[in-house]
Backbone:
């Protein structure tokens, strides 16, 4: 079996403060009582990629928790980036680790912090895409059908559909990548019907991506060549990874690549970017209130309540609030002011971050 | 020293839920970081009544916590009522306990759940009143100058001022007691200037109150007579107290008594009846927010925040809330709906009460 997977789990952030902290960001949280998003990402690959072929990239702050949550994987498959260097160096590190194991591998790269509920649909598409990567010289992406003109996602513009009878999913040639458009442009994208959201998932063969990097990002291709031959890979990573130029994989490779394909996702997808997004998946109570904890309400509607303790929360005469409780911090925010949560987080002492 | 004190500490209730529970109501809470209201009531008597002369009445649910908080008093001075029987039986139980110790005692009765910050002023008045009780055949009360037409307090109507050169405080003859008036009547009381709030504090000599009870409430006088002579007082209380008719001391005695006097309080007084009252005494933060915990705010004003853990509370875009956090329950209520807190409490499972 020469199919491999790389899970990118190095994301940081306190968007879900007070539940998320620098050492425990979104992908390491159990927001929905079904395991953490990282555990769900690992489970999502079951039957597609054997556990010994799954790699996880993280960072030193989160490494201990990632190892705890990914205890079913070989310890040497979990690698902490010695420095933060954006997605192109991270992807190259993963390609190098897999190339050292199997230079002819095909691989799928998935983020650890997206919510996908329809696992069978994901697995069928991932299998189709890996099989295509085995035989096509292309960089393969997965596109999510946009439901609103979100200005903070990357968009992929599609051209004609592939006419490949071996495929069981719709797959398109890609015209180009478009980073975070302004609102008006996003509206046009949505209206045209030719654009999909970039889900940050990539499928390719190791030989092909190395050839493409050699052509368009030689620094990264050289890094992969040397890592795949290194006698002491951990030492090589510590020494050489921090020297790489920080750049996103979209800019470094995908926008320049000779051929990019785009599968149309047949599964649900949510990047769960805020407490309001979380609210969509929490158990529904009366009057539009949602909560993962027992809630008692009087004249209160449309509140999002989350506790890490399962404590009782009583609401009296309050609407449209976000209430998040943890052992050492409590957040009460107006839903319409959710974007200002980061402002209050910015004022907090380090020990609460 | 034949001066004694009786602290009534059997009040129950969940008005301060989730902080207060049936086994730990208001008087057993440390709301202001200066000790519980019961501890403050005990301290308030220092120098007026020796510790061995201070009695506390409580109930079985709260007895253990009361004994813990009143560890400086003789254990036998803390008595749990075997049943709830309103204030006249409770007061009679206290009179009987003190009569057994010293039939010639004078005593002051104080509630355990009022906030009084000016201790020296309280002590000066209490001393004046006890001295008066030693020499005057009267039931003495303390009146609080009303600041608003509160319809839920008892009012005392005063007549002429005593002309007693030995007194260092203003003291008046009482015309009558008025229980909880309607709003219009309360307005009239306030306008007349002859009414004060009944603070629930009583001062009298044991011989005089026994004579008055014998005349107006013989069942209670008989109970006191037998208790003061009982060979096994605890057994007598267990057997006989539950048989007493439930009635308030105002109805049973004070409204009928031959002579009632009323001292004009020279100290501050607050019965701290709600979280909004508590808010008046919590440390003030920016924008009208008050909290006993560290608070970080963005665009948030006039919130009352209380935690029993001292955890950080972050407020974003919220105004006029009451936020109270404990280990197993969290309350978020609109200030204007504070009266509805009891409605949500009524829906809660027993283990949270």
Residues:
């Amino acid at each position: 079996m020469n199919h491999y997977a790389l899970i990118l789990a190095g994301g940081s952030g306190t968007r879900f403060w007070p539940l998320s902290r620098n050492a425990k960001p979104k992908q390491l949280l159990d927001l929905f009582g079904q395991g953490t998003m990282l555990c769900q990402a690992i489970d999502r690959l079951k039957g597609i990629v054997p556990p010994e072929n799954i790699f996880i990239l993280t960072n030193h702050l989160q490494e201990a928790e990632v190892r705890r949550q990914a205890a079913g994987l070989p310890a040497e498959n979990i690698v902490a980036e010695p420095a933060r260097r954006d997605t192109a160096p991270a992807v190259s590190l993963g390609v190098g680790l897999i190339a050292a194991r199997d230079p002819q591998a095909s691989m799928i790269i998935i983020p650890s912090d997206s919510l996908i509920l329809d696992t069978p649909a994901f697995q069928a598409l991932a299998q189709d895409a890996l099989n295509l990567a085995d035989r096509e010289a292309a960089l393969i992406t997965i596109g999510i059908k946009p439901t609103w003109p979100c200005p903070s996602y990357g968009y992929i513009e599609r051209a004609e559909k592939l006419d490949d009878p071996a495929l069981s999913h719709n797959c398109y040639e890609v015209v180009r990548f478009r980073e975070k458009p302004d609102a008006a442009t996003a509206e046009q994208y949505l209206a045209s019907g030719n654009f999909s959201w970039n889900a940050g998932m990539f499928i390719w063969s190791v030989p092909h991506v190395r050839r493409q990097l050699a052509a368009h990002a030689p620094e990264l291709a050289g890094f992969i060549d040397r890592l795949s031959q290194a006698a002491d890979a951990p030492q090589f990573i510590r020494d050489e990874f921090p020297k790489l130029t920080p750049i996103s994989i979209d800019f470094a490779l995908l926008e320049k690549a000779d051929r990019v394909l785009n599968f149309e996702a047949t599964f649900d997808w949510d990047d769960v970017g805020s407490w309001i997004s979380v609210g969509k998946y929490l158990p529904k109570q009366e009057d539009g209130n949602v909560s993962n904890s027992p809630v008692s309400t009087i004249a209160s509607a449309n509140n999002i309540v989350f506790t890490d303790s399962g404590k009782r929360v009583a609401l009296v005469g309050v609407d449209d609030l976000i209430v998040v409780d943890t052992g050492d911090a409590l957040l009460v925010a107006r839903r319409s002011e959710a974007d200002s949560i980061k402002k209050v987080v910015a004022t907090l002492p380090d020990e609460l971050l």
About this structure: Chain A touches chain B through 38 residues (CB under 8 Å).
